[in-house]
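Re-running Mitochondrial ribosome-associated GTPase 2 to confirm reproducibility after the cluster update. Everything else is unchanged from the original entry.
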Amino acid sequence: MVPSRLLSVGPRTVFGGVGRWTRVAPGQLPWHAPPRLLSASCADLSKHQEPPRKKPLSEKKLKRHFVDHRRVLIRGGCGGDGVSCFHSEPRKEFGGPDGGDGGDGGHVILKADQQVKSLSSVLSRYQGFHGQAGGRKNCSGRGGAVLYIRVPVGTLVKEGSEVVADLSCPGAEYVAARGGAGGKGNRFFLANDNRAPVTCTPGQPGQERVLFLELKTVAHAGMVGFPNVGKSSLLRAISNARPAVASYPFTTLKPHVGIVRCDDHQQIAVADIPGIVRGAHQNRGLGSAFLRHIERCRFLLFVVDLSEPEPWTQLEDLKWELEQHEAGLSQRPHVVVANKVDLPEARAAVPRLRARLGPSAVALSAATGENVEALLLRLQELHRQHVATELQRSRQPLRW
Ligand SMILES: Nc1nc2c(ncn2[C@@H]2O[C@H](COP(=O)(O)OP(=O)(O)OP(=O)(O)O)[C@@H](O)[C@H]2O)c(=O)[nH]1
Ligand SMILES: [Mg+2]
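Result of re-run:
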């Protein structure tokens, strides 16, 4: 505590460190007491009662948040060197070679991990652990430990344009760079015609590769829609996922996968991806690069905002953007979800929507939960169809 009599004097004298007195100007007090009346500062506060608005992010910044591809330079660990030395013991003149081999360098392995959600945690370069050099008395060096790089499930590994691995199952591994072999000690070169070799070899350098990692989310269903139509709210309503919901566009910047548990103990994975805008294929909004996340989805959920005028035009635009990204993508089995039916203008638009898109469109409200069961039934039906088709083709259906 600063003594109170020191507070009231003109050019003030206060503590300026431990046990020192310093002269400071009135505006430079070390504690945060503005030299004003309390009532004046209250009046100031009342002027600023509105909470500070969040600055809208620029398109460039938005893209920086969204990490679904990475270029990585990976080097395996170097092998340890072999050693050249001779056994040394009193009264034993020619003890023979006893230089041990170096340990092998550690591999670098990419491992699919369900806990990892994006490639943002993957660094741009990795170096594996080196092997230890060999030792005296024929001791081999310790091998380098394996370095695991944890990547999200659904990561595609490319070298140049060639796909070298597809880590689509949890726990799947790919040896990205092999560690170098350890060198040989001079004991290794002992032969009948050479009883005292001095040769030893150095450890080999580890493999070096430049790999491109590309994340393609694996889920049964992919949600596609314009920003702010309520995709994340819908995922919250039907699954255990808790993506952020807010009334500004591009709240979702990376895919979220929620698991819908059905009555028949089936689990359906639904992916919520960032919103698409008109002209996304020309790199508008967040672009259409994240549409790669629905490439692997077996069926689609087209989400439209029913409170907007002519919501069916949204569906046409969405299908157009999907076709621009990959031909035939919009033809996948799908269900049209018209959200925000709790709003009066949206409820009034239901008959027109049905006239345009047929009775299969599901009008619901993610906010109130109205008619969400109808969507769950449709999802179950689509899932059943997917399982049947995969079994017909003698393939394993996607399991979560
Ligand atoms: N009235 C009403 N509002 C809703 C409903 N569903 C979502 N909203 C509101 O719509 C706004 C956007 O919701 P989000 O779930 O963030 O929308 P989104 O499609 O995920 O948006 P992006 O992530 O930006 O693409 C929020 O203010 C929600 O409260 C609904 O059924 N009824
Ligand atoms: Mg969202």
